[in-house]
């Protein structure tokens, strides 16, 4: 292992995240300052969405090939707005076995290659206790909303994605079905 790789591993273990492109980093953090705004009535109950504790990915169960945005020379992109109930934190990561074919695209707007995107993102919602306002809600309750999605090399594919909320040590795994029903 090179010196640069050892430093990268040490920083990852310490939980250090990088800004900008993720080619130098495998993890990223987004918070109240990177939020978008919107209203999402019924999002925690909608069958098309994935709900894991205080976290929702909009459109998780709608992975037909028609939802993918393809740009020549770039990975396929599936837009899935994410939101977290205010005051909460959720970490999302692509499972180890799928990191070579899928990444998360919430913190890397100018990324071109798949490797430019992080495989793990921590979403920290706005907190009214800190005087922050999210400007988004689900059924009148505040949530913090981020625009973004998943990028991937090819479809169809089955991509295991892991979730952990707040300070839990337990990771929950769900499989994202990209243009397939067989996973």
How would you summarize what this structure contains?
This protein has 183 residues and is mainly beta.
Number of helices: 1
| Fraction of residues in H or I helices | under 10%
Question: Low-confidence parts lasting 5 or more residues at pLDDT below 50?
Answer: 2-24
Mean pLDDT: 81
Order of helices and strands: HEEEEEEEEEEEEEE
What does this structure look like?
By secondary structure, the chain is mainly β. The protein has one domain. It is built from 1 helix and 14 strands; from the N terminus they run H-E-E-E-E-E-E-E-E-E-E-E-E-E-E. It has a 5-stranded mixed sheet, with no helix packed on it. The N and C termini lie far apart (34 Å).
Question: Which secondary structure elements does this structure contain, and how are they paired or packed?
Answer:
Elements (H helix, E strand, L loop, with lengths): L2 H12 L12 E4 L19 E3 L2 E3 L10 E2 L6 E4 L2 E4 L3 E6 L7 E4 L14 E5 L11 E3 L2 E6 L2 E4 L4 E9 L6 E7 L5
Parallel strand pairs: 1-9
Antiparallel strand pairs: 2-3, 3-6, 4-5, 5-12, 6-11, 7-9, 7-13, 8-12, 10-11, 13-14
């Amino acid at each position: 292992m090179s010196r640069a790789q050892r430093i990268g591993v040490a920083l990852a273990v310490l939980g250090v995240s990088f800004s900008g492109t993720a080619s130098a980093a495998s993890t990223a953090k987004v918070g109240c300052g990177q939020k978008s705004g919107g209203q999402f009535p019924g999002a925690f109950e909608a069958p098309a969405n994935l709900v894991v504790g205080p976290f929702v990915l909009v459109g998780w169960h709608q992975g037909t090939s028609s939802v993918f945005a393809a740009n020549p020379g770039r990975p396929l992109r599936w837009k899935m707005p994410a939101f977290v109930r205010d005051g909460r934190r959720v970490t999302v990561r692509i499972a180890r076995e799928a990191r070579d074919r899928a990444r998360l695209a919430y913190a890397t707007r100018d990324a071109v290659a798949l490797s430019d995107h992080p495989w793990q993102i921590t979403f920290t919602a706005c907190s009214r206790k800190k005087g922050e306002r999210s400007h988004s809600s689900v059924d009148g309750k505040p949530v913090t909303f981020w625009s973004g999605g998943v990028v991937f090399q090819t479809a169809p594919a089955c991509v295991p994605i892991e979730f952990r909320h707040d300070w839990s040590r337990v990771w929950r795994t769900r499989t994202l079905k990209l243009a397939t029903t067989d996973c």
